[in-house]
Amino acid sequence: MIICKSRDEIMLMRQAGKIVTEVLLKIEENLKPGIQTLYLDRIAEEMIYRYKAVPAFKGYVGRISTKPYPASICVSINEEVVHGIPGKRKVAEGDLVSIDVGVKHRGFYGDAARSYKVGNVSSAAEKLYRAASDALNLSIEKCIAGNRLSDLSNAIESRAGMDSFSVVRVFVGHGIGKRMHEDPQILNYGLPGQGPVLKKGMVLAIEPMLNQGTGDVEILEDGWTVVTADRKLSCHFEDTVAITQDGPFILTRL
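^ that's the sequence the OP posted. Answer follows.
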């Protein structure tokens, strides 16, 4: 069941979204060659608690793993698609790094991800980064009451196809609210004009995942980290967006 939120609930979600955005901006300030991914996690966790929020990912048990997620953010580098666990690994010049942040604040969740280019990246990484960023923005433009859910999906797949990139099919975007993952699932592929009609009050976490090579993925032995099957580059963006009478309201941007 898709839960539509009231205006007051959306404004509470906006508060959670602002916290997520501020954390991402702080991480961006500190993201440079030589920094340990665990240090980025500590920065994020301290900041989340300072805002009197709770890290949404820490301790989370999802459908892909029975192991509780051990960190407050996800840091996925190069061939890592999503759910990379922060640790001793150091970020290097030329890396393409995805940071995913989720918080719970006053009973509601906020969720967003950004990919960052560390120093001088390859032309392939630059092209993939631009395509994934465009895919998110194009799908958000489709967040209009009366459109169909698959219009978002088709926008993502179409932008990926423009540069012959593939989309990850086994992981999806999702509804969000009092739970991190609510209905509906938002595929990164599909024909337009299909699925539920978008209605005022729906709140969606849209997250295109584009791969340089195959769209197939594997999960590493840690039970969480998702990597491309061919170990080529991946890029991930995400925003939480509310459907309103005035169009899309992006809750995770300032």
